[in-house]
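ok so i was messing around last nite and threw this chain in just to see what happens. nothing serious, just curious
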Amino acid sequence: QVQLQESGPGLVKPSQTLSLTCTVSGGSITTNYYYWNWIRQPPGKGLEWMGAIAYGGNTYYSPSLKSRISISRDTSENQFTMQLASVTPEDTAVYYCVVGDDWGQGTQVTVSP
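result:
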């Protein structure tokens, strides 16, 4: 079983760029056919898939976020990172990194002046 741990700031100001990192243990982010995802859940709303980076490094983004999101990876650290630009209070959510059925514990991000 893969373990995932999100890390990043809990509070971000509007218009700034949010950066979250997922540290992976128990498996390699270059393992064939694995897709490493970012999913978020705003308060009182459902889960929203944001994007993913594949085992080979290809990236895939939600059309609604494509202009603002970027996902990258550091294979030497076995980490992948999500950056979301120009955040607004609507980006307040719990953010999860996910692979298959394995989820991180989630990290709360609040966007507020």
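not much to say yet. The chain has no helices and eleven strands.
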